[in-house]
Each structure stands twice: as C-alpha cells, then as structure tokens.
Amino acid sequence: MELSLISSIALATLIFFLFKIATRQTSKTKLLPQPWGLPFIGHMHHLIGTLPHRGLANLAKKYGSLMHLQLGELSTIVVSSPKLAQEVLTNHDLTFADRPINLTAEVVVYHSSDIVFSPYGEYWRQLRKLCTLELLSAKKVKSFQSLREDECWNLVQEIRSSGSGRPINISRRVFGTIALIVSKAAFGKGVKDLTEFTDLIKKILTEMGGFDMSDVFPSKTFIHHLSGKKARLAKIHNNVDNILNKIFSETLKNRSNTSEESLLDILLRLKDNSEFPLTVDNIKAVLLDVFAAGEDTSAATVEWALSEAIRNPRIMEKLQAELRETLKGKARILEDDIRDLSYLNQVIKETLRLHPPGPLLMARESRESCVLGGYDIPKKTKLQINAFAINRDPEYWNDPECFIPERFEHNPTNIIGTEYEYIPFGAGRRMCPGVGLGLANVRLPLSNLLYHFNWKLPNGVKNEDLDMSECFGAAVHRKCDLVLEPIF
Ligand code: HEM
C-alpha cells in the first residue's frame, strides 16, 4: 500500500516535470521568474518557517522584483520594487482593483460585504464614498478628539497607580486603550463585552492571514472542512453576530439620547433615509472593518515606535525633549498641542517605514489580463505588493535597516513616497481610507507614554538587547509583548 502511494507520487511528479518541460519548449509567452516548484502545493514550501513578507523579500532578492509564485491553486505575482508598485498602483490600478476571495471574509464578514473585501464595483464605490464623506472624514476624526484625550489620560492614571518601577505590559495596555477608543467611536457607549469582542476580532485577523492551506485552495472545500477552518469560522461568526445584535438592539432603543453621532448612528441614519441601500448585515460588516483594520494597526505602530525609542536612547531623549519643551509641564496633553511636533511625526513615519503593520498591503486580483513589466499577466491573477521590501529598498533608502527618523526631516514624504518608495497605507483606489483616524490613534497614546514617563527594560536587560521579533497576522506586531518599567 505504502509502496504504491510512493510510486503514485513519483509518477505524478515525473508527469508534472515532463509537462513543464514540454510546455516551456512550446510556449511563446515570456515566463515570469519563479523558484522551483512541487506538484500540488506549487511554491508554498519556500515560505515554510519564515514570515511571509520576509520570505517573499528573500525570494525577490533571487528572482527579481516581479516574480511568479504558484501558491496552491492561486497563481500569484509578487511586486517588490517602488517602480513596479507605482506601475501597478497607477497605470494598472483599475485592473488590480479586486480582492481575491477570502474564506474568512466570506464566512465571518457577512459574505465579504465589508469595504476591505467587497469586489470592485458600485457597492464598494458607495462604501468608499461613505468613508470619505462621513465615517472617516477629517471632521469625524476630529469629533472623537476628546474621547481619545480622555482614554489616553485614563491610561496615564492607570500606569501611575501601578507604581514607579513596576513592570507594565505596554502592548496590552496600548491595545486596550485603542480598543476602547475605537469601540466608543463605533458604538457610542462602547461594547459591554469588549474583551470578548476584541478577542474575536483577533481570531478573525489570525484566520485572515491568507497563507494557510484553506486560503491557497479556495475551491477545495474538503480542505476547509478537514482542517476545521470552516467550523472555526462559523463559530467566530455566530459569536460576533450575537454581540453585534445586542449592540444594535440597545442602540435602537436609546437612539434619541445620543448627542455626538457614533459610526453606528451614522450608518443607521443613512439606512433609514434610504440614501444608500444598506442592510443590517452590511452595517455589521463595515463595523467589523473598523475594528479589524483600525485597532491592531495603530496599536502595533505605537508598540514598535516605543520599542525603537527604547533601543535608541538618543532618539528617546530627543522625542521626550520635544514633547516636554512644548508642553511645559502641562498635566493633560490635548491633540492640538502635539499635532505639528516635527520629530514625533518623523518617528511615526520611520516606524511605519520599518514596521508597516500591513507589510504585504491587502492582496489584490486582476479583473482582466494586462502586461506588466513586459510580462503577460492573465485575468484572475493574485497580486501581492511587498511594502515591507519596498519601504527598505536600498536604491531609495540609505542604511535601510536602521531606524533613523531624521531621514524624514527634509523629505516631503507624507503618506506615500513620491516614487512609491514608501507605501505603509497602500496607494491607488484601494488605499487605506483610515489614515487620519489611524494616525490620530497612534500620535496621542505614544505622546502620553513618552511625555509622562521615562522607561526602562525590566530585570536589567540592556536597551540594545530588546527582542524585536515579529509575529505575522493581518497586522504584524511584536512576537513578545513589550514589558517596560515606568520611572516617574
Ligand atoms: C496605522 C494605521 C493603519 C495602517 C498602517 C493601515 C494600513 C492599511 C493598508 C496597507 C491597507 C491596504 C491598502 C491596499 O490594498 O492598497 C489598508 C486598507 C484599509 N484600511 Fe487601513 N490602516 C490603518 C488604519 C486604518 C483605520 C483606523 C481604518 C478604519 C477605521 C482603516 C480602514 C481600512 C479599510 C476599510 C481598508 C480597505 C480599503 C479598500 O479595500 O477599499 N485602516 N489599510
């Protein structure tokens, strides 16, 4: 039995390679560079044991900034240079404006009816318009200013109350603060079961990674069942839906009492006025985006910025000096005090360059065939843009692996580099619509932690020895929580 299985695999492999050789000789199309592959899984094995953005960056060093990978049944191209990213995100932006089908989004996020996963078309266009004009407009972001100030002040008080020199799990505290801000912005009073809800969001993000067997074999439903993924996703969906149902019924009961509209209030108003044909499930899907895209990304950025400042005492001193000289002993930080602090902004930009929370942006898919970099790209090809590799391309950045905020001092780069050498929020039609809210949720918590406290690593660990390992999920954050001792 065993022997016949081995000989079947050997025969299949032989046929596969013979087929490859035969088609290579006869094909007239220029083939994209690619590493060696295996039957069935294609090039998946090249990513085993590595974080996908790092694995893909290493492969690009060998096979070039435009390469092809067969990931299971998904024919995927990977772009790893600013020049090609610019070509894709400008000339071919419309061609690559779709997202590939994602099992997690299908099952959990109400059949992909959110902003992130809905296919390019009228429904998605309307949702984006809704973001620009209402949900994520500069005015709306500003309307949550006092909410952010209050929650950051609570964070400072909590840290103070636990005492000077006592270790604090900064990762958890920062995530908790940002989760509270997002939850109150989304639902007014916030979510009663916030811990349960944010745990569910984290589970969604983990399942959404995009590189497990169920993701790369979207048509092989037996894999989704055998791996248990389908059942896990259904359970997560039911739990999330129950919590959202409770919030909806409470909001509908108390609607007349709200002074400042929450994001849910806005969505219900638009639904009532029939300005946009939204169903209750559509609203739930959009709100899930706000949590999934808005919490972890900002929390990871604060975590990485603080980690880099700890490792670089010169940068920490300069940051604290800027804040303390500007605020002159003021007890509570208001957003208007810190909006234009140049070094703080340079540190945040440099953090997003070296530690983009979405290092591969969000996968896209071609809606039609096109020619890219001289190669024919068929319709329905998956596209990954490696922002992690692009943000540290040595042709564009000196000492690309070093954390040097000053590189942005005389650099006009704001959220996209002029030559697409900096794309932490993506670019083009499907660029992040939450930049304003995301940065506001980074700037204030980070400023508070730096202004009110000095920090040191516990157990006499030296600053330069801080472990900077990453963990891959929908947002790349620290592998080990950042634990620090506040000194005040
Ligand atoms: C530091 C914070 C953030 C970072 C670094 C970030 C990064 C990104 C990236 C890289 C993408 C993919 C863009 C592409 O495919 O080209 C994206 C998409 C998206 N982001 Fe953000 N994001 C942040 C905060 C937020 C916030 C606060 C929200 C909303 C509350 C948000 C909502 C979205 C949505 C809805 C999309 C999908 C857009 C579409 O497909 O049309 N993001 N984000």
Could you characterize the architecture of this molecule?
A hairpin with a 2-residue loop joins β5 and β6. The model is unreliable at 1-12 and 21-28 (pLDDT under 50). It is globular, with a radius of gyration of 24 Å. The chain has 20 helices and 11 strands. It is α+β, with helices and mostly antiparallel strands. The longest helix is centred in the N-terminal third of the chain and has 25 residues, at 2-26. 43% of the residues are buried. It has a 4-stranded mixed β-sheet, covered by helices on one side. A 3-stranded antiparallel β-sheet has the order 3-11-8. α9 (194-207) packs antiparallel against α12 and α15 (296-311) runs parallel beside α20 (435-452). 51% of the residues lie in helices and 8% in strands. The protein has helices spanning 2-26, 52-63, 82-89, 103-107, 122-135, 138-143, 145-161, 170-187, 194-207, 213-216, 221-226, 229-253, 263-272, 280-294, 296-311, 313-327, 335-338, 342-354, 387-390, 435-452; strands at residues 66-71, 74-79, 168-169, 364-365, 370-372, 375-377, 382-385, 454-456, 470-471, 477-478, 483-487. Bound molecules: protoporphyrin IX containing FE.
